[in-house]
């Protein structure tokens, strides 16, 4: 099935290494969110991904696997998002990991299902920041990454990731001013509808994830940003 990802305003992100009840997963999938992303940093296993996918597929909602390890890739998702960590200090996370995955799985890839996303990770305390050996960019750095993503690399998505902490709306606003074709995705620390509305003023798509495991009811309310 074809989906217009540019129309997605709100997305829930589920971590296969964390737990929600079946009723909670049903509520997430039927909440009115535009899509479900499956992804995480620690302890992402094929078993966990398949288990989560099987529950999500009971409902008619787009489902995306954000690939963090090739060992957890499985058929059945609508899209496979490939992160390119632009502010990593290691070439591995910009090019080499992706190269090895394509070398291994290239003949099996349906390229129409694959989407590359330029990641800028902006929380030094985040596990993803530490794993990928990032440096903390300043405002000018982030804007330059946005320009590179759109003008040089033609990336369909630029993802500003604060991962567990609420970010800077003014920076998101400034980044958006430099993007015309590339979709701006914001994720990190959104726990309330008010925060969702604030970031949705500037980002094309907001991602709500960690708060589902900390304050489920309030997190579900963030979907009303679409109204």
TrEMBL record:
GO biological process: what's one of them?
glycerophospholipid biosynthetic process
- What EC number(s) does its UniProt record assign? 2.5.1.n9
Q: Which GO-annotated molecular functions does the record name?
A: heptaprenylglyceryl phosphate synthase activity; magnesium ion binding
Query: Pathway it belongs to?
Result: Membrane lipid metabolism; glycerophospholipid metabolism
Q: CDD domains in the record, alphabetically?
A: PcrB_like (cd02812)
Tell me, in a sentence or two, what this protein's role is.
Prenyltransferase that catalyzes in vivo the transfer of the heptaprenyl moiety of heptaprenyl pyrophosphate (HepPP; 35 carbon atoms) to the C3 hydroxyl of sn-glycerol-1-phosphate (G1P), producing heptaprenylglyceryl phosphate (HepGP). This reaction is an ether-bond-formation step in the biosynthesis of archaea-type G1P-based membrane lipids found in Bacillales.
Quaternary structure and interacting proteins, as annotated: Homodimer.
What's the protein called, per UniProt?
Answer: Heptaprenylglyceryl phosphate synthase
Source species of the chain: Amphibacillus xylanus (strain ATCC 51415 / DSM 6626 / JCM 7361 / LMG 17667 / NBRC 15112 / Ep01)
Gene that encodes it? pcrB
């Amino acid at each position: 099935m074809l989906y217009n990802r540019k129309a997605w305003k709100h997305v829930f992100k589920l971590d296969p290494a964390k737990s929600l009840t079946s009723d909670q997963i049903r509520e997430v999938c039927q909440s009115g969110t535009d899509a479900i992303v499956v992804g995480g940093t620690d302890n992402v296993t094929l078993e966990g991904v398949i288990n989560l996918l099987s529950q999500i597929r009971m409902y008619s909602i787009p489902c995306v696997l954000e690939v963090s390890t090739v060992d957890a890739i499985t058929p059945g998702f609508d899209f496979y998002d490939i992160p390119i960590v632009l502010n990593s200090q290691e070439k591995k996370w910009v090019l080499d990991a992706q190269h090895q995955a394509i070398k291994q799985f290239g003949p099996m890839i349906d390229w129409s299902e694959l989407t590359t996303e330029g990641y800028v990770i902006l929380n030094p305390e985040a596990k993803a920041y530490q794993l990928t050996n990032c440096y903390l960019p300043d405002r000018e750095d982030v804007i330059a990454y946005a320009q590179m993503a759109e003008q040089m690399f033609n990336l369909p998505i630029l993802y500003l990731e604060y991962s567990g902490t609420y970010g800077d709306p003014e920076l998101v606003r400034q980044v958006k001013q430099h993007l015309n074709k590339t979709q701006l995705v914001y994720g990190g620390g959104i726990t309330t509808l008010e925060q969702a509305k604030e970031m949705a003023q500037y980002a094309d798509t907001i991602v709500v994830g960690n708060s589902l495991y900390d304050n489920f009811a309030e997190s579900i309310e963030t979907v009303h940003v679409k109204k």
